[in-house]
UniProtKB/TrEMBL annotation:
Binds 2 Zn(2+) ions. Zn(2+) binds at residues 259, 543, 547, 588-589, 714. SUPFAM superfamilies: Alkaline phosphatase-like. This is alkaline phosphatase. InterPro entries: Alkaline_phosphatase, Alkaline_phosphatase_core_sf. The active site is at 324 (phosphoserine intermediate). Mg(2+) binds at residues 259, 383, 385, 538. Its cofactor is Zn(2+); Mg(2+).
Length: 757
């Protein structure tokens, strides 16, 4: 290694010393090291040319060795010399790609903004023709840290232009015929890396910014927005407006979301009648709920019957692991965003509600068609997936304010008025009864009632509502208890202190996803009439129970989702509207879950040490057959129907799990007493350790996450998209999550120029 470094240093002997001195002032160590690596790999010599490969360097210093030499690239003079050489070579693209690898990891000054000029929506953004959006530009002046520049004074005289491909650029205010907005200024802090965080030494950034509100682009094609600042520096963003599609092919859309439902839970076969379309089988859930004889299932899940399957990629805009807020927002708006953000592109301002907004599908649907729309969820209604239909904030935890947005729309800026949902069914009573959880402490049951909503607080009331009126149903505090507790272990419901009116009583008269969805379809069909409807129905606890490593509860809710899809399709047939309704089943993100065998839970429990307990796991031929669908002697029959397990407590349980988890103990048994808590705070408070009361007969599984994480996390996996009905063929293949929005919008005829009044 040292010989390799010495040989490379000799290539720099021709650089004069005076060229090296300025390097000490401004080249960060990580940049110096990366430049050194690039030059070394390219075999650059002192004569500023890429020379034929030197025999000694080729033999002793192959390009892959550069990665190992990085740590030795300490002297500033060497790396600056390489920068001088690179400046004379046409290798800017290589260098830029290399630098980007080190400048956008754990922390970022502002996602999507690698330079000191920021354009939001950023480069590579897509738009529906006529879709409303805001544009924000920011000019950053870092005060300290590796990026410190311009004495911490941001350029306030920046210019913004937009140019459609083939046409000259225009000033942004001229192009959109709007007044120049006021200049805004603020300061924010961030950590450059984990070392800075440990030392508590943040970097400070001063900002000058303007926001251009409620814009739209009506002509399809490519646009370039350019921000000019600091006497010649430029940041350009290429935007693309999708094709116009005015013809409406679907009257209604029902979008089922199995939150956290992943292709890691699936097996792909080719369906003989559709040789170009993969068929996905949700194997873990099917194994539990459907009987197999000699390797052939006797019944199948409703999702198995869908004619078209696609897959969507779930990346965030500035990280490859997403959360539910910005992934749902991508599905609803066609714009990727940052973790925790919805309906906006996250900016750096102190106000979480002034970020540049994008119009969502229900806002566009209401504006253009005047049709009905609704949301159903087994989560609290202010949770990310249901509330992102109307939410516009970079901070998903603003629960009370987001419920107010769902009812009243935006009140701080002029925007599309969606007039509130026609149906809003779920949980999360804390944001509705007057108290610290509701917006400004107001009573939102009363606020909804004052706008003509019927209010249901239990299943009995839900069954009796007038379907001609708008309907709010809030059935408990927090999230709805999962299917397994509502149907198999109902005695657990008494342990929940979740009365929808507040207080510590238990909510016992609860609807499930199926009951809420079927009633929602009735209301929306009645209220939408000839104008149609849009419904989102979410099985939220597939995700929430996967986080808790409670796989039985997660798969129970996945089976409930499939049962709901089956019942909804039957209802649509009976209402004679199936042929005019696009039905989609997908997810917003995934978990790294899979099944690798079976576990003899009795044998496992009787072993004395962890290694012996692992011998209870049967793989390959020892995995055996599912006992979940075989009614055993002296076992309880739950009466939950043919599409659910007849035995949730078999001796031979599935052996499965996720790849990303905290330290925990695993015994593979169903948690009969209630939802699982795999890890608890440790003695140091900031870290989590194995819960001694969980899986007491199991063996310890070491975690794969930071010790501060108490639950599993999302994964990179693509997720399935099942489609049937009008436009079903457009959902095949693999595509970005934002494309789901554009496919739905085109099918509804929403891709049309915006008519300003």
């Amino acid at each position: 290694m040292s010989r390799c470094l010495t040989l490379f240093r000799k290539t720099l002997h021709g650089v004069r010393a005076q060229q090296l001195r300025p390097a000490r002032a401004f080249i960060p160590q990580h940049v110096r090291s990366m430049v050194f690596m690039v030059a070394f790999t390219l075999n650059i010599g002192p004569d500023s040319r890429i020379r034929p490969k030197d025999t000694r360097l080729a033999r002793q210093c192959p390009p892959e060795t550069a990665l190992r030499v990085l740590a030795m690239a300490e002297p500033v003079e060497e790396t600056y010399a390489v920068m001088m050489l690179l400046a004379k070579l046409n290798v800017a693209a290589v260098l830029a790609a290399s630098l980007s690898a080190v400048s956008a990891q754990t922390f970022q000054r502002l996602g999507t903004c690698p330079t000191l000029g920021c354009v939001l929506p950023p480069d590579q953004s897509d738009f529906l023709p006529g879709q409303l959006f805001d544009l924000r530009v920011e000019v950053h002046a870092p005060v300290n840290g590796s990026e410190a520049a311009h004495d911490g004074k941001p350029d306030e005289d920046f210019k913004v232009t937009i140019a459609k491909e083939g046409k000259p650029p225009e000033d942004i205010t001229t192009a959109f015929k709007i007044a120049e907005p006021k200049l805004e200024k603020w300061t924010f802090k961030w950590y450059e890396d984990l070392f800075a965080q440990d030392k508590k030494t943040p970097s400070v950034v001063n900002v000058a910014s303007k926001a251009y509100r409620k814009l739209s682009l009506n002509e399809t094609g490519k646009y370039t927005v350019t921000l000019e600042y600091y006497n010649g520096e430029k940041t350009a963003a290429e935007w693309f407006v999708r094709p116009i599609a005015k013809k409406r092919k679907a009257k209604n859309v029902i979008f089922f979301i199995g939150d956290g439902m992943t292709t890691n839970m699936v097996r792909q076969d080719q369906f003989p009648l559709f040789p170009l379309i993969d068929r996905v089988q949700i194997t873990a859930a099917r194994l539990l709920g459907h009987k197999s004889i000699n390797g052939k299932y006797q019944t199948r899940m409703q999702m198995d019957e869908f004619p078209v399957l696609g897959h969507q990629m779930t990346h965030s805009i500035d990280s490859y692991i997403t959360d539910s807020a910005n992934s749902a927002s991508a599905l609803y708006s066609g714009h990727k965003s940052t973790v925790n953000a919805m309906g906006v592109h996250a900016d750096s301002s102190p106000d979480p509600f002034d970020d540049p907004k994008v119009e969502t599908i229900v806002e566009i649907f209401r504006r253009i068609t005047k049709g009905a729309w609704g949301a159903v969820s087994t989560a609290f209604l202010a949770d990310a997936t249901p509330i992102a239909l109307t939410g516009h904030t970079r901070r998903r935890a603003e629960y009370g304010a987001l419920i107010d947005q769902a009812l009243h729309g935006l009140t701080n800026y002029s925007w599309t008025q969606h007039d509130g949902p026609d149906v809003f069914f779920g949980a999360g009573a804390e944001q509705f009864y007057a108290g610290k959880g509701s917006y400004q402490g107001k009573d939102y049951y009363e606020a909804f009632a004052n706008k003509g909503y019927t209010i249901s607080l239990n299943k009995t009331a839900l069954d009796k509502i007038d379907v001609s009126k708008r309907a709010l149903g809030v059935f408990c505090q927090s999230n709805l208890p999962v299917w397994l507790d509502r149907n198999v272990y109902p005695e657990n419901l008494k342990d929940f202190k979740n009365d929808p009116k507040g207080g510590n009583d238990s909510a016992l008269d609860l609807p499930g996803l199926k009951e809420m969805t079927l009633k929602a379809v009735e209301v929306l069909h009645e209220r939408g009439g000839d104008k149609g409807f849009f419904l989102m129905s979410e099985a939220a606890s597939v995700d929430k129970q996967m986080h808790a490593l409670d796989y039985d509860r997660a798969l129970g809710d996945l089976l409930e989702l499939d049962d709901t899809v089956r019942a909804t399709i039957k209802q649509l047939e009976e209402m004679d509207i199936l042929d005019e309704t696009l039905v989609i089943v997908s997810a917003d993100h995934g978990h790294g879950f899979d099944v690798w065998g079976s576990a003899d839970t009795e044998y496992l429990a009787q072993q004395k040490d962890d290694r012996a307990k692992r011998d209870a796991i049967g793989v390959y031929e020892k995995s055996g057959l599912s006992q979940y669908t075989s009614q055993q002697p002296n076992k309880i029959n739950y009466g939950t129907g043919v599409n659910f397990p007849s035995d949730w407590e078999p001796r031979y349980a599935i052996a499965g799990g996720v790849g990303a988890a905290p330290d925990h103990r695993e015994d593979y048994k169903v948690h009969k007493a209630g939802p699982r808590l795999p890890a608890v705070p440790g003695p140091h408070g900031h870290e989590h350790v194995v819960n001694a009361e969980d899986g007491v007969d199991g063996f310890i599984v070491n975690g794969t996450l930071p010790t501060g994480e108490a639950q599993g996390v999302h994964s990179l996996t693509d997720v399935p998209v099942f489609a049937m009905g009008p436009c079903q063929e457009s959902f095949g293949g693999t595509y970005n999550n934002v494309d789901v929005f554009y496919k739905m919008a085109a099918c509804l005829g929403l891709a049309r120029p915006h008519e300003r009044h």
